[in-house]
Predict the 3D structure of the following.
Amino acid sequence: MLGFFIALLQLGQAPPESGAYMLQGGTVHTISGPVIEDGSVLVRDGKIVGVGHRLQAPEGVTVIDVHGQQVYPGMIDSASLNADPASEHLKAARINGVTTMLRLPEGDPVGVATDGPVPVIHVRFPAIATRRIPPHESADDDDEPTTAVAAEVVSYAAAKKQHDAQLKKLNRFFDEARRRPAGPMGAVLAGTAPLFVTAVREREIREAVAFAVKQKIRLILTDAYECYKVIPLLKAHDVAVILGPPLTLPLDEDDPYDRSYTTAAELAKAGVRFSIGTFSQRLSRNLPYQAAAAVAFGLPHDEGYRAVSLGAAEILGLGKRFGSIDEGKAANLIVSDGDPLEATTHVTRVFIEGKPVDMDTRQKRLAEQYRR
């Protein structure tokens, strides 16, 4: 299975077709290499075993004609809320091309998930926050999420006191982990697994990097809104970033209107490794349009799709298994009638680990009902 990912494979897809099959005649966007016109992808036992131009299907292999259509690797939502595998929201994301999601565990002070091939350790780095930053998705709010600053305000002294207490607690946790380096923290301390750190503002981003240097651990920043202010620091320490959704309002009233839209392009230009996450269960289906917003504001198109496929897989240490159409990788594939980053495009087929996905959802059934 997909390890510490929530595998959408489990969400009631159609049973797998018997034997191998070939997607034949489409435009194959490998992401790792050139686009292949009139290309074919051969799948067997859930793996990609052949990719090329005008391949001939071996005897006994089912051919699926995709002439005139586009074939891409499935998209990866680099950060999502802890999700219910039976949720209709995940089914909607699946048929829009999102085949894989990473969930960040929460904890006090450290969230730990061990249900995969590598542990996932997540920290919300202590912040001196005089005004609360609301989450991208609120459990009790059906409106579109926003990162607009909330109204509640606390004094600097109170915020600093809370920050110091949380930081002390975090340092104590790591000190204790080093005395007993077994379990999932052992991989982080040994540098074989990264520490995922949510740090939104410049101050906590700088503090998080300094903490990682002191602890001699690998760091992946998540939802780092103000990472554009510290690009040289990130580049110097090779810190990867999982950006929050570009389609959000500016964090501060005096930020440019397009502040969230342009960060991805700035990171790409500087050579900082990054991907894009929705930090939402309900809106994971909009992942392609989050990437599209970054493309519209300066991110090269190829880099836009890479940020939700191979770039994400590489940051997560799974680039050899997911994120591109290459021999030996899992057959997480989507077929569409156009560019998946365009809202007018329809995803016509989805395969997860080689298995065809049922494209029916509650949303589609309701749409048909009300059309009638």
About this structure: The two ends are 40 Å apart (CA to CA).
